[in-house]
Specification:
With about 270 residues, this protein is mostly beta strands. The chain is built from 1 helix and 14 strands; from the N terminus they run αββββββββββββββ. It has one helix spanning about 1-20, and strands at about 30-40, 45-50, 55-60, 70-80, 95-105, 110-120, 125-145, 160-185, 195, 200-215, 220-230, 235-240, 250-255, 260-270. The radius of gyration is 24 Å and the shape is elongated.
Length: about 270
């Protein structure tokens, strides 16, 4: 997971080098670093397995996530006449732009009670497990933005105060390492606690953002924003839950969840 994150950061920096305008150009391009807090919504976390045709089991956790600190980097441009690659955009396109948004944060599921059920030869049983999981998430979003300017002056003709909105697809690199331990259980087959290996996956999601940018100087701005991200990652594990007999032999399981992530950010940008 860390190697993938470093590669994404390297890609963003490479694109930054490619997007820089020629010396003397007055393009509205910018690079921004920001910090923020992530507050994931609680979502059901489902764990399902069918070791044999006669035996199935499932675990359902409430999916309560811990808040996390997030760091990120934006690289963007507004479509002005002096903008990206020197295109002579029509004047109305100065209200539109595009930016890459790379961010990283932890994505841990706090300790919680998970409901457990199994069916063997048509006979159901159930109980509870203590469940938690450590994870992380790196996101590379491709954002299409619109803005408006207030309080123009000679130094910033478009306006010093610039509210904006943006939306776009996102590549979400998510990892999770679940842990299960018995709380109460009535079934005869599962006897061991489980500490699964860390697994990662890449899924396409959706990102949306609304922000307020203030041009403190001609080439320096402060950005405060609210962001929403949506993704549906799925993880595949191979486990041996213990017990006796072939009914609980090593088998594959799938963990599915829906992520809805809300975050607030504060950043500083340099404009080229």
């Amino acid at each position: 997971m860390r190697k993938k994150t470093y590669r994404l950061a390297g890609l963003v920096l490479l694109l930054a080098a490619l997007l820089l305008p020629p010396v003397g150009a007055s393009a509205e391009m910018y690079v921004e670093a920001y910090l923020g807090g992530v507050f994931p919504a609680s979502q059901s976390f489902n764990y399902n397995a069918s070791p044999t045709p006669f035996y199935t089991y499932s675990v359902n956790a409430p999916g309560r996530y811990d808040p996390a600190v997030m760091g990120g980097l934006k690289l963007g441009t507004w479509f002005v006449k002096e903008g990206f690659l020197g295109f002579n955009y029509p004047d109305w396109m100065k209200y539109l732009g595009f930016y890459l948004d790379f961010s990283y944060h932890r994505l841990n599921l706090r300790h919680q009670q998970a409901s457990y059920s199994e069916i063997f030869a048509g006979l159901p049983s159930q109980g509870q497990w203590d469940f938690s999981s450590n994870g992380s998430m790196a996101t590379l979003a491709f954002m299409f933005a619109a803005r408006y300017g207030f309080f123009p002056d000679s130094e910033v003709p478009f306006g010093r105060l610039q509210p904006y909105v943006a939306v776009g697809p996102a590549l979400c690199f998510v990892s999770q390492r679940p842990r299960f331990s018995f709380s109460t259980f009535n079934g005869p087959f599962l006897t061991d606690n489980m500490d699964l290996a860390s697994k990662s996956t890449m899924v396409v999601g959706l990102a949306a953002e609304a922000g307020l940018r203030y041009m403190a100087l001609k080439n320096v701005s402060i950005d405060a924003s609210f962001k929403y991200r949506y993704a549906q990652p799925s993880f595949d594990y191979t486990v041996n839950p213990g017990g006796n007999g072939f009914f609980v032999a090593t088998h594959d399981v799938k963990l599915d969840t829906t992520l809805q992530l809300f975050s607030v950010q504060l950043g500083a940008a340099y404009h080229f």
